[in-house]
Design a protein that fits this description.
Bound molecules: NADPH dihydro-nicotinamide-adenine-dinucleotide phosphate, (2S)-3,4-dihydro-2H-pyrrole-2-carboxylic acid
Strand order of the largest sheet: 3-2-1-4-5-6-7-8
Subcellular location: Cytoplasm
CATH superfamily of the largest domain: NAD(P)-binding Rossmann-like Domain
Keywords: Amino-acid biosynthesis, Cytoplasm, NADP, Oxidoreductase, Proline biosynthesis
Number of strands: 8
Family: Belongs to the pyrroline-5-carboxylate reductase family.
Helix content: 40-55%
CATH topology of the largest domain: Rossmann fold
Main location: cytoplasm
Largest sheet: 8 strands, mixed
Structural class: alpha/beta
Number of domains: 2
Oligomer: single chain
CATH class of the largest domain: Alpha Beta
GO cellular component, one term: cytoplasm
Number of helices: 12
Mean pLDDT: 96
Low-confidence stretches: none
Amino acid sequence: MLTKKRLFFLGAGSMAEAMIKGLLAAQLLPAEQISVSTRKRTEHLQELSTTYGIHRCQDKRAEIEAADIIIIAVKPFDVATALQEVRESISARQMVISVAAGIATEDIESCFSEQVPVIRAMPNTSSFVQESATALCGGRWADQEHIALAENLFSAIGISVVVKEGLMNAVTGLSGSGPAYFYYVFEGLIQAGLECGLPEETCRTLLLQTVYGAAKMLKTTGKEPAELRRQVTSPNGTTMAGISVLEQGDVLNHFVQAVKRATQRSEEMGRQSNPAHV
Ligand SMILES: NC(=O)C1=CN([C@@H]2O[C@H](COP(=O)(O)OP(=O)(O)OC[C@H]3O[C@@H](n4cnc5c(N)ncnc54)[C@H](OP(=O)(O)O)[C@@H]3O)[C@@H](O)[C@H]2O)C=CC1
Ligand SMILES: O=C(O)[C@@H]1CCC=N1
């Protein structure tokens, strides 16, 4: 579906690069059909162009007009300015996909004079290795074909699910930010291994396989995490001793609070960065 489409990335940061890397690895479309732009870091455009063979944007407006899909990948508080600059080059024959946290489809739609189809998506940086967990929803002017096209794109770089827009802030707090929670745990476990006398390389090798194995167990057995945890936990053994420390620190509840706070932050950013109010 996407083989002949031209993609324009408004923004060339972590998320845009992760998506580009994943899309090219999936061979969904040729690199020359992808164009990227930045605000000021033009040297970064050259780097991306050299690394991935994608088109280095020279004339933002003309290239946006020629694109089929415009992907908004700037920070939420930069969406308003970025759209102001290019909104007249975007028409209803195109499609906009925004990955900006918190920004509602209707607020993006209101920037255009035409009925531009808008998809709001929340991937994560594991797009880089084609393992993103993406949730997406369609705005007022997006029909089933637009949603299918977006699913096609995000399924090439991981898995994708369609949700109601009212759930997008929660998705952002959970799986958009999600990789960072797991990296945080990983950092803690590396530090633990070092303090217990293991060499860093050994810690990393053992932990990488442990986290990969645990994810694969969850995925392939379909069992509840609590049940899998029980299988590891011998009565009065090492796991029970370790978990009791986490329970004393109410760590599980801290994860719940972290995701709730991230969800709330997504809502706040949506209100504070609303492009419709600029
Ligand atoms: N990072 C993540 O894990 C995820 C991020 N997101 C969303 O993706 C979006 C981008 O995040 P991230 O990649 O982390 O951010 P970065 O700061 O890494 O990248 C932002 C990019 O936007 C560019 N930019 C800013 N203003 C403009 C403009 N007017 N025109 C063109 N380009 C512009 C910047 O250019 P310059 O460097 O020149 O200023 C930079 O290349 C955010 O809205 C975020 O909510 C969604 C899911 C996960
Ligand atoms: O931290 C952020 O705001 C972005 C959105 C989801 C992941 N990173």
